[in-house]
Specification:
Elements lengths: L16 H18 L5 E8 L4 E11 L4 E2 L6 E2 L5 H13 L15 H9 L9 H5 L11 H9 L7 H11 L13 H15 L3 H8 L11 E2 L16 E2 L4 E2 L15 E3 L1 H12 L7 H7 L16 E4 L3 E7 L3 E6 L4 E7 L5 H16 L3
Antiparallel strand pairs: 1-2, 1-12, 2-3, 4-8, 5-8, 6-7, 9-10, 10-11, 11-12
Length: 365
Amino acid sequence: MKKIVLLNSLFIPLIGFGQLQTVFKHKVDSIYDKNKDAIGIIVHVEAPKKNISWSYAKGVTNKSTNKTLEHQQPVLIASNTKPYVAAAILRLVEKGEFTLDQPIVSLLSKKTRHLFENDGYNLEIITIKHLLSHTSGIQDYVDEDYFEFVNQHPKYKWKKEEQIKRSIDIGSPQPVGEKFSYADINYLLLTEIIEQKTNLPFYAAVRQLLRFKELNLTRTWFINLENYPENTLPLAHQYADKYNWDSYTIDPSWDLYGGGGIASTAKETALFFQYVFDGKIIQDKQLLEAMHTYVLPPDKSKYCLGIYHFDLGFNAYYHGGWWGTDVIYSPESDATITVFTLQKEFQHLINPFIGKEFQKLLIAE
């Protein structure tokens, strides 16, 4: 819930765009001046009904060189990849490839199916919806020992098969559909299902299903799996003090196969949320509504299908990422805010301030 506070954000009748830019810029500058250890902040506001598409950056892109951060620089968006994977799955549902309530037993590869079944999992009762909503009861491969291994072996190249095996080795089946338990393994399995149904590498299938080319999302890609986009600035460095990590020194494969993996700019991340919820990617209105409809009672889980749905006095569709990336969309105002904080530990300090100011300025009329 710390991350979400960005999100006390979006929304009262709007002042002029020029004045809004000045206020936003002053606010971000003020926040950074008080929190310079945050390294850098990138903000994007996308509000098409108000003709607003505005990005701003403050700070540096690399604390070793102190090179100025630019708002067009991409970052690793980490778990903000999950809404992309979820939307790709919903596109396959829309195309009639399977249903949300279909068991995954016939959708996984034979090898993966046998691994889970031999560990006692009943894949006849785990559905697509369970994976999307983190209610599958499957043990995640990510735990403190995983982080410690990455810390000790930062250049190790993980294969998704290793992560599946680790999931099986460290846990046992839990009740299905009863409890929210956030787990990257759910989304790794969803990317395998995408590959099985499309006969394409999941990253290529996601690009096609989500209409990246038609929507001109030219600076959004799966890091190290796709070519670095032309005319795109270098990735900003992202930092995590707990492990003394710089994103440039960690092989991306630790967080690559659907639970994370996408790199993008603040603007394109906001545009993706806009396009999804404006019906430009998923056109079936019932499916789109399912994406932000609670699977469990909201007092048990605010997670829907690849997205959190919070009631902040207005509806807020949100996701966050481990490296310090946050995106929120308000359907009432049809507006999205992205905030990238380059120092992970400052994410929860910066977002509340930005959130309060944005709320005053952008609430729907």
